[in-house]
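Let us work through a complete example step by step.
Step 1: write down the sequence.
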Amino acid sequence: MSNAPQPVATQAAPRREPSAINQPLPLPPSGLPVTVGVSYDPVCDTLVFSLDGKTGTSLSWQTGGYALVINFVWKAQPFTELFAKTPACWFTNAAQQDIVRRQTCCVPPVPGWYHIAAEVPDPENGPGATKVVDPVIIVTPIITG
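Step 2: predict the structure and record it as tokens.
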């Protein structure tokens, strides 16, 4: 048996696909603000939203004529702020309250896909490097039969 150093694998581990990628997290259809947890999963390279024990990598909401107000609460903090990529969607500045970071978003009651984003660490490109991940908020009309 040799004491020679063994080769070390240098290939990055393959990214796993988020299990909820095709299952947006549904938000309650009401005119009331909703609080949603948000974190970043570096293995899947996506934001993960949580509400009432359920998770998703995007959000869906059925409008009933009211705008949607989302209070995002950070579950982990590798990023500092969410921002809108779709101009009709707007965000307040992120703020630290006690030990929790929060930010509020307003989405109009118009059906469509509203792109939001966060700048997250990108260790593959060196220390301090960042990249943008951009989930969506899918707004659909309430259909009554």
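Step 3: interpret the result. The chain is about 0% helix and 45% strand.
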